[in-house]
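Working notes for the structural subgroup meeting. M.R. asked for a predicted model of this chain before we commit to crystallization trials. I am recording the input and output together here so anyone reviewing the notebook later can reproduce the run.

Input as submitted:
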Amino acid sequence: MAEHRSMQRAALLDAARSLLSEGGTEALTFPALAERTGLARSSVYEYFRSRAAVVEELCEADFPLWAAEVAAAMERAHSPAGKVEAYVRQQLALVGDRRHRAVVAISASELDAGAREKIRAAHGGLVVMIVEALGEMGHEQPRLAAMLLQGVVDAAVRRIELGAAEDPAAITDAAVAMVLRGVQG
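Returned structure, recorded in token form:
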């Protein structure tokens, strides 16, 4: 029984990722989740009390995986500047991943305070990863620089997500160049 519930919950989360990446937060409805998973609508409520609860669980499942991919890219770099570049490039490479598209859709939605706080905390965990490299580069305020650097990444993510006229590789290169010049200068 517990295994069945776990599989159903996983199927609901997978359906939620798909709905969010395909149609944004408006697409994430309990009737749509029920249709995607073959469950009755009332059954969806047995697993999640609200849309915000689905979002919170997606964040808990997906942010650590995403952060691990960024951390692994940074570990492969051989210098602090290389770590900064890897941090930016890996986040932007993940834009096409449906876990990321779901997170972007989530962060743009009307969430309750608990869900927004989980998203902020997860993003804060990403920012912490880059503080040390910025300190090694001699930045006087590495935490502030990390927050601003993440702002550049977030702007590049939005630009790529919008399907901007620029190629995603060009957006990535521009973000990397801007960040590296900014933290070294």
